[in-house]
Protein 1
Amino acid sequence: QKPLPNNELSDMYISLSSLYTRLVSMAALQQTPITFQSRSPPSKEITSKFQSHKPLKTSFSGGFPSLKLPKLTVKFAGKSRSRGGTAGAKMADSPAGSYATALADVAKGNGTLETTSADVEKVGKIFSDPQVYDFFVNPTIDIEKKRKVIDEIASSSSLQPHTANFLNILIDMKRIEVIKDIVKEFEVVYNKLTDTELAIVSSVVKLESQHLAQIAKGVQRLTGAKNVRIKTVIDPSLVAGFTIRYGNAGSKLIDMSVKKQLEEIADQLDLGDIQLAV
């Protein structure tokens, strides 16, 4: 893949810088505390059975002084992503990769790859609850009880039959403990099959859809991917601005956060680490 011409990189930098400026301005005008709440638990019917934890809440307040626009920082932690070759073979080396590839093959074969991807995402959210995960990996709990709960999950979450059967197979083979890894590996397989670039956008506040679309276009221009999938993360430690992580295993980083700017100032002044109180 050929590198982007300097004028295109400049255009993308100006676009992201403009977005950064708007976000910092919005934060500076904020005078009242804002409370951010994590995503809702997967399903009331399911989580009630396992006494799901309460959502995590984080408080953030205060304004910001006038800040200099940071440089566009792109870090490379390894080689760029390959869109073919040995990627699939490497994933299949692990049990989770083998299961994920098998499920993707079934979904691709019956034309339900997109729906199955949505199913796997639901499963990931459900098993992210420690109470749910501990229930299924507990060897003292009867398999039939676990199967019954799987049926309830499939019904309440509208999972496809082959997705529910897949979970039952993991239970029967006593491999349900790798379900979290399977969810991660399936995303990798799905992205490879659909030529999709995953970009994780971290920010202090939830970004508007038009801002995310602007970031997606920038990542698409950088990678040449057919599709770009955005995942958002709330990170108060950034102070303001945002970061974009993409590439193979998140090996590339665009850092347009105020935290990064403050760290660079500290390095220049030889002040050591700056401790940010958030």
Note: Residues 11 and 59 are 35 Å apart (CA to CA).
Protein 2
Amino acid sequence: MKERAEKDTLTNLLNRTEFEARVHKFFSHNKQPEGIFIILDIDHFKNINDSLGHISGDKILCFVAELLIEIFPETNIISRLGGDEFALFIPYKLEQFELEKKLLKICQTFSANESTKVSCSVGVCFSPIHGFSYKELYKNSDIALLNAKQLGKSQYVIFEHGLTLPSFSQLEQKATALLNDVSDAMFVCDATSNEIIYINNTACHFIDKNKYECIGAKCYQLFWDKCKNCDRCLSINQLNSYYEEDTVMKDGKTSVHIKAKLGKWDGKDVKIHYLQGISDINK
């Protein structure tokens, strides 16, 4: 009876109440409470439920539960908090490379069955440096999780002091998720500093960079290998709206059609760039 009250009925992991109680117990019994708090959810889970039905969705939830038990044999403090949200607590430190290896396994796209591929987004924080209580650790790992989702999902973010909740509105967050998967390469840079504040997966693949390398970089350095504003940015400023041209990338062999315009992004003045018709000029 007691075990039934502690467990999530679908996955047989700890339920939220028992998970919280065990983390509280850890802190009350340890004077130097070193541990790792991890929270994750399944990317695009609503779409899976809507397209395949709740029975398939439940099977995927059980699959992820089993995966967490397999990847983290060092702890039995693993929970389905509710919906597609899971959490786990490791009551001691792991070597950084060992932890990151495990996190990559959770984030990577894997086959839940013959027809469904699934990935997860993950937020991580550590005690005691990020908190001495369940409440603090949950809050900080959730901030990290939301940042992982903003960066394009299927990845992990480790919390650090100064990291804040993403400031996009809910509508902008949904738009960002859609833009990540469109076929055209797209990036957005601050209109004044030219620092990239958003870049989709297609654009990252195009320049062979990950999002961490791109966010905050100057667009003219990253895409055009220049040390100052390129002519197209100057043209956008002069025309105060829109610009497009056919050009060749810095490798000298890739042609692309560029469209750029001034706009607003999360309340900021930005330049939005689309790279279309990418092809090899030698073919």
Note: The chain has two domains: 2-158, 170-280.
Protein 3
Amino acid sequence: MWLGCTSPIADSLSKSPAISNRIVSLSPNITEVLFALGAGPRVIAVTRFCDYPADALALPKIGGFIDPSFEAIVSQRPDLVIGTKNTAADGVATRLSDAGIAVHLFPMETLADTRSAIQSIATLIGNKKQGDELVTQLDAGLADVAARVQQTQRRRVVVLFGHRPMVIAGPHTFVDELITLAGGINIAAGAKLAYPTWSPEAVAAALPDVIIDTSMGSETVAAADFALQWERWVDIPAVKRKQIVHLADTSLLRPGPRLVQGLLILAKTIHPEAFETK
């Protein structure tokens, strides 16, 4: 299913212990991967955004995804820290490595990245079999959902991550790939950036059939209010078809074990007719 998969080049800044019993996660999707691999009991701290599974909510917090605290991490006495590649993680990872703590950062921007990261993390923590099984389950689940919409007419889709500014899913991202698997065409597939900023006018000019808002937190807008924002563009197919939707499910935002759930939600939103009970 995930074609062209290669092993990601993870930043391994120091040697990992033979068996890691005190693991700190630097991102929500890494937390989900660790629990899905059966390593939940070994996870000792997570970010304040790690809300799935429920057991993660009770764990000590080491800051956020973009502002992890070096001091908070060290205070937990971890023997392994795992995160995703981003500027904030790179900075704290260097300091942790200098302190003698094993750190591994994985790129997880695409489905291929995610697949390889899961397998690499599984091997790293001694749960290779669970990693292989999880990837096999993901492959089968994604293929099953994609098959449901294979015969549908593709619809033009835009997925928004925020309003101020309006950030949307661009090319070479897992969301772009999910749109394709869900029977859609990403209107920003030709953009130069992975997460470009567009004006509402630019989105309207692209004539999307479906507008999907995934914004959360302070930028969350009531579904009815969000739909009203687009009413002035009466020629947008999404407005005519009343296909302006707010989806507040984190599985759409995290490349990890719940990708199948995210794809199913996306496919049902883009092609509800493919899932109607006959």
Note: Strands lie at 11-12, 23-25, 43-45, 80-84, 103-106, 155-163, 166-168, 184-186, 210-213, 244-246.
Protein 4
Amino acid sequence: MSAGEWHSTEDVLEFLAHAGDFLRSRPAMHNTPLTSVEKLRLSGRPGRLGWLVEDGEVRAAYLHGPATHRVNLTPLTPDQAGSVADHLAGREVVAVTADHDTSTAFAEAWQRKTGAAAEPTVRIRLYRLGTLTPPDPFPEGRGRVLQPTDHEDLVRWCGEFLDAVGEAPAPTWAESRFADKTFTFWETPDGTPVSIAGNTPMVAGMVRVDPVYTPAHLRGRGYAAAATVEVSRAALAAGATDVVLYANPFNPTSNALYQRLGYVPISEFTVYAFTAPETRATA
């Protein structure tokens, strides 16, 4: 195999012309790049996008957020991780997200290249739906897709979810990771919402379920399972071939739930945060 060459652009359509087929070749593993690139395409916002060509074929890709300075990578070999670190040298990179082996290889390469300290901050497990298996018994109630008139309630529920997981909110709703998603409430027979599940728009036959949230005082009654089943069914009915979700691998309750519903773990992802040498020196 010949040495590869990285190419980059801020033109989403140019990137898709080169790397679109590659991203679509593994919708589950590439779910985050697929949805992120689609958001850039629809919004018209710029982003630094790159792809690796080896022996005339695209073998990998990355996204480098111009505002967040975070890098998202498709799976790479250690040599490829080193080459993309060389390619990104001189740019600000504050974090990387990828499957665990790729993220670790890039973090090590970035440390060697820049002297930055790397710290693993998040570990998440990727699941792909096999055969959807609703719980039995199924909680009483119904699923209801939220409408524009539910926006105030949606913002409140998403805010509670962020508080529960310790995630900082975006400056505005439009900039949040929720703005482009469809949400479904699971409601009790009297119409009271007791759980919520979101899903991304379908891209390359892939839908990601995110987030799933039930207030603490309502947990243990099957409501999260019901909400997850509702959005999973809707995705399948819409023609999705890959329905995926992420879970905290250290939460045995959610992992057991998703596996009972038919979700199969396929990979572990790690986020590394970087601290530049000059920042550490003045801390």
Note: The chain has a mean pLDDT of 95.
